[in-house]
Design brief:
The protein contains five helices and two strands; from the N terminus they run H-H-H-E-E-H-H. By secondary structure, it is mainly alpha-helical.
């Protein structure tokens, strides 16, 4: 399959998803269940992406320096640290464990 065919299929798919979103009736968007779902969906997707990137290596479950960095970031969040401190804590712990091990 040519790269341009794959790009064309992707463009068409994105357009169809956008068109599908525009065709949803306004009344359906005002329902409380839908509003709750749209508020929680990005958080769930970000959490799933974080877990996949932290604990997976191809098809194997891995606990390494990335998990420790995530734990450090979680601790900083519990302590209500500013965002840059949370990121710095994760980076420093991950780099420190990789440097030692």
């Amino acid at each position: 399959m040519s790269v341009w065919i794959a790009i064309g299929i992707t463009v068409l798919g994105c357009y169809l998803v956008k068109l599908l979103g525009l065709s949803v009736p306004a009344g359906a968007l005002e329902r409380p269940v839908f509003k709750r779902l749209t508020a929680l969906l990005p958080v769930a997707l970000l959490a799933a992406l974080t877990a996949q990137q932290t604990f997976a290596d191809q098809t194997v479950l891995v606990l390494d320096a990335r998990a420790a960095g995530l734990a450090a970031a979680a601790l900083a969040l519990v302590l209500r640290a500013p965002f840059l401190v949370v990121v710095a804590a994760a980076v420093l712990v991950t780099a420190g464990i990789r440097a030692v091990g």
